[in-house]
Amino acid sequence: MHAYRSHTCADLNAGHVGQEVRLSGWVHRVRDHGGVLFIDLRDHYGITQVIADADSAAFAELEKVRAEWVIRIEGVVKGRDAALVNPKLSTGEIEVYARGLTVLGAADELPMPVFGEVDYPEETRLTYRFLDLRREKLHGNMMLRSNVVRSLRNRMWSAGFNEFQTPIITASSPEGARDFLVPSRLHPGKFYALPQAPQQFKQLIMVAGFDRYFQIAPCFRDEDPRADRSPTDFYQLDIEMSFVEQEDVFAAVQPVIQGLFEEFGGDRKVYADWPRIAWRDAMLWYGSDKPDLRNPIRMQVVSEHFRGSGFAIFAKLLENEGTEVRAIPAPMGGSRKFCDRMNAFAQAQGLPGMGYIFWRKGEDGAMEAAGPLAKNIGPERTEAIRLQLGLGEGDAAFFLGGKPETFEAVAGRARNEIGRELGLTEENCFKFAWIVDFPMYETDDEGKIDFSHNPFSMPQGGMEALEGDPLKVHAYQYDLACNGYELVSGGIRNHRPEIMFKAFEIAGYPKEEVEKRFGGMVKAFRYGAPPHGGCAAGIDRIVMLLADEANIREVIMFPMNQRAEDLLMGAPSEPTNEQLRELRLRVVPKD
């Protein structure tokens, strides 16, 4: 018999009754029933109930064990009475009568329980992550993640892609976030960077003649943390293909992602219809470039109904260039109580509020419009709004105005809140959409032109498009949204050096700077680069959705906290003076 176990804690069943066995694992729970001890023994695979009474040679030693001790049990398998069978356990038909015990690893008093799913402060959970990971739910999340990664690999290989690894220590590259810099000991004063993504390398792989590449790639970005984003590192399914257009990438990616969600989504419906939505339409209809399509509400522009109206706030606002009024339809939201609640929601988001109109049955039995806006703009305009929005008695509409960029995000959150409150948002499903035609450029707070997304994307229209207004240029850039999250981002790449130089010049990067920062890729493009494109899918976020978790740290084995600290390993830490001298670095004290 093996030194530690003849079976795992999930193996035994009624067919093993009478057999001598050896099990090893953690003491999950101890129950003393007055002269009879019951111990739930847990390992990676499951739980087996161990029993000992006063006649057992192991009884005296078993009385000493405590939760999370690691022990080895020798015993005999016994069948449970029919009334005592536990259908929730794979081993629920049997129990092991203990005849011998060996303590393999005693445990100190626990700083947090493992048995049960008690909600403990995140600081404690991350400091003792090895204990946190023993809990059933988190253990299940990690196994889900492992199986998702395995499935992704199998699906990519089956689709004709080849897996290649790219460097972890490389040069700095603008990917929209701050780099993590690594000082060079051999080249004092110079720094490597951890890759924000394998972007340049995967393009170089295409130039080198490999047709379909993928990688489960670690990426490093010095970002501010969010519930759906790790502040330091994350993993993505990285993909690149040669001789493709946008639709070819979509056709390659959809079976992989859809199949993955069908495999691991449980009883949740996975919609196969993935619409293409232009970025400008997504922002108009949903107030977000990662819309949650489970909510059917679409916002609309209703500016003409308020222009020159008796509602002075909107009427005067519309006299300014670039302003508009948008409506959020709210089917079945036609009560003053609900409207006031949504108005308070907007105020909590930092806006003065939302105007609203709701339609109800009047005293004469006919439908009438109610609310402060209705009184100000009159029945003719309110009826025109109702008809445009397709609303009726018992429905409402909310209104926001100004320059779209000042209220779109809040409008999007209000749309989501209205959908949830009114029960319009479909549950237990996954709805996807490709967001396409992203703007190539945007302006910062000072009016400076910069890239709005991936700087390596091909502008739609090529060089000719770059000769006009940069803010009207669209890129062959696309994202995949699912249930309000961005899961995939990608683009058709700019593989023509002259177009690349022009694109960067518009964003304030002279040719010399481009040559310096991206010399390897520019050099490669001069020696025959194929048209190519691809994307990257965020594995952490995919698993978060599949696990039905709201916080990405629940699906990462050893995550950082909100302040980008590793509480278990003590990172970041101060370097020693010897390390600093070797790297020829000096730390400037914080003021």
From TrEMBL:
Keyword terms, alphabetized: Aminoacyl-tRNA synthetase, ATP-binding, Cytoplasm, Ligase, Nucleotide-binding, Protein biosynthesis
Entry keyword annotation includes Glycoprotein: no
First-level EC class: ligase
Region (Aspartate) residue spans: 199-202
Site entry: Important for tRNA non-discrimination: 33
Binding site for L-aspartate: 175, 221, 453, 493
PROSITE patterns recorded: AA_TRNA_LIGASE_II
Subunit field text: Homodimer.
UniProt family annotation: Belongs to the class-II aminoacyl-tRNA synthetase family. Type 1 subfamily.
Protein's UniProt name: Aspartate--tRNA(Asp/Asn) ligase
Organism: Cereibacter ovatus
Lineage, top ranks: Bacteria, Pseudomonadati, Pseudomonadota, Alphaproteobacteria, Rhodobacterales
